[in-house]
Amino acid sequence: MREVQLLVIGGGPAGMAAAVEARKQGVEDILILEREDSLGGILQQCIHTGFGLQIFKEELTGPEYACRYIDMVHKMNISYITGATVLSIKSGRMVEAISPTDGFMRIRAGAVILAMGCRERTRGSLNIPGTRPAGIYTAGTAQKFVNINGYLPGRNVVILGSGDIGLIMARRLTLEGAAVKMVCEIMPKPGGLTRNVVQCLQDFNIPLKLSHTIVEIHGRNRIEGVTVAAVDECKQPAPGTEEFVACDTLLLSVGLIPENEITREAGIDIDPLTAGPVVDKKMQTSMPGVFACGNVVHVHDLVDNVTLQAELAGTSAAGFVAGH
Fold it and tell me: Of 39, 179, 239, 256, which is the most exposed, with the fewest CB atoms less than 10 Å away?
């Protein structure tokens, strides 16, 4: 069994910022556990600009923003293990995890910071009629295919939902040569930032169909098209408004959910509105000594706000370790 003063679960922007701030507050023995093969989290695949305007007073890409904090982690000699999956958090802040290099680990921490981020809603949460053909992806998965793996998921694309990742992928796929037929949004206004609506859709003449949704998916082996329909005030499809749109790819950008399975299993109170843990003004959860920050608490629009919240969590966790 290993003992540390502070254990941070998640090596994305929230986890790294919390660890860096805790180190500044005097915590020496810090360990970050990250599920992926490298630090940086989702920022590594967000190659567009728009990050860091508040924290660094300059416009950075996602990887550039992440690199700033990765460099801080290295310079401060903060320990981390990548490829590590946390299995459980037990009373007394006992964390169980596994990794290919370290095997099964049992770690007792003076304080724990939850920074696991969020995940995308999938087709399973939408109940769209149709078969299960290839060519249906969440926007984040498509983003990883294009920006990390170098694969184009399709040539003729329809996007359901106007979240920021979907809007950004509409532009990204267009720049890579795909034809984005439209973005459908069930609500009467876009879900993403105004700047993304302008820069990613309007600047590329990509139609945004508000108060519209997809009512059927067509195709057996590969998606061949979707049926789009307008919705009424109750968000129900309006008869007679159906339109078939041919496509070989459907991207889903229909919301993000805090990644809190471990949190729930630990018995930590969950806020039913945000799906994140209930936290106090110091970002402490209902389990003493366990703090949370970033998208695991609630989904943020800007990574700069994630960082500010993480710094508060890092400061609070340092105070808890010191007995304040």
Answer: 239
Q: Can you say whether the dihedral through the CA atoms of 46, 66, 304, 259 is positive or negative?
A: positive
How sure is the predictor about 190, in pLDDT bands with cuts at 50, 70 and 90?
Answer: very high
Last residue of one domain, picked from the residues 252, 274, 305: 252
CATH number at residue 176: 3.50.50.60
Residues 192 and 133 in one domain: yes
Closest to 85 (Cα-Cα) out of 96, 95, 98: 98
Q: pLDDT by residue (tens digit) across 71-99?
A: 999 999 999 999 999 999 999 999 999 99
CB atoms within 10 A of CB 177: 8
Domain that holds residue 69: 2-119+257-321
For 212-244, write each residue's pLDDT tens digit: 999 999 999 999 999 999 999 999 999 999 999
Strand partners, 31: 7, 79
- Give yes or no: residues 100 and 9 share one domain: yes
Beta-strand pair 118-120/256-258:
antiparallel
Please, are residues 116 and 134 in contact by the beta-carbon 8 Å criterion?
no
Q: Which of 31-35, 67-71, 297-301 has the lowest mean pLDDT?
A: 297-301
Q: Is residue 148 located within the same domain as residue 82?
A: no
* Residue 74 and residue 181 share a domain: no
What the block records as the tokens of 282 is 């110091």
Asked if residue 74 and residue 129 are part of one domain, the reply reads no
The 10s digit of each residue's pLDDT in 1-14 is 899 999 999 999 99
Q: Taking a C-beta distance cutoff of 8 angstroms, is the pair 35, 84 a contact?
A: yes
- Both tokens of residue 130? 């149709």
